[in-house]
Design goal:
Layout lengths: L1 H11 L19 H19 L8 H36 L2 H6 L3 H17 L3 H21 L11
Helix pairs in contact: 2-3, 2-6, 3-5, 5-6
Length: 157
């Protein structure tokens, strides 16, 4: 019964046909969010490496240290995951086969960047965090060049 009612409604009020070339309207894609979250990965990695454990025997200070360390780790892992998600959306939704002609290393670049996001989640490595920033910068440049725009890379201090 419900199917027949839905069928009648569809006949009386047909949906207009629509066409789109991507999952979202033009202009919604931007690598800026990946840059911001990758910068947070770098910042949290620095904070983790700079954090000094307290002197032995100070239980209160040890609890505070462990709390701070666990918060830094959680933020680093969360931001690395967000970076990966932002990059994967750009890779799968924005970039099309036509872009491969201009950027033959596009797939390899995104794959390596995604792998670096994973490495930054499970490790505390300034080398990997900085490599991630370099890959995000490369993707940033590919993205804007694909739109025939030259956008200066923001360098965090």
């Amino acid at each position: 019964m419900l199917k027949s009612i839905a069928s009648i409604i569809k006949q009386w009020f047909p949906a207009p046909e629509v066409h789109a070339h991507c999952d979202g309207p033009c202009g919604v894609y931007d690598p800026a969010s990946a840059r911001i979250t990758a910068e947070a990965v770098v910042a949290m990695t620095k904070k983790i490496l700079d954090l000094q454990p307290p002197a032995a025997g100070d239980a209160q200070a040890m609890v505070a240290y462990q709390n701070t360390l666990s918060r830094y780790i959680a933020i680093k892992e969360e931001q690395a995951q967000k970076t990966k998600e932002d990059l994967l959306i750009l890779w799968t939704d924005y970039f099309k086969p036509v872009h491969l002609e201009k950027y033959p290393d596009l797939h390899d670049t995104f794959w390596k960047a995604a792998k670096l996001c994973s490495a930054c989640k499970v490790e505390v490595s300034m080398n990997h965090a900085n490599e991630l920033m370099e890959m995000v910068q490369k993707i940033h440049q590919m993205f804007w060049a694909s739109k025939d725009r030259d956008v200066t890379w923001y360098k965090a201090s």
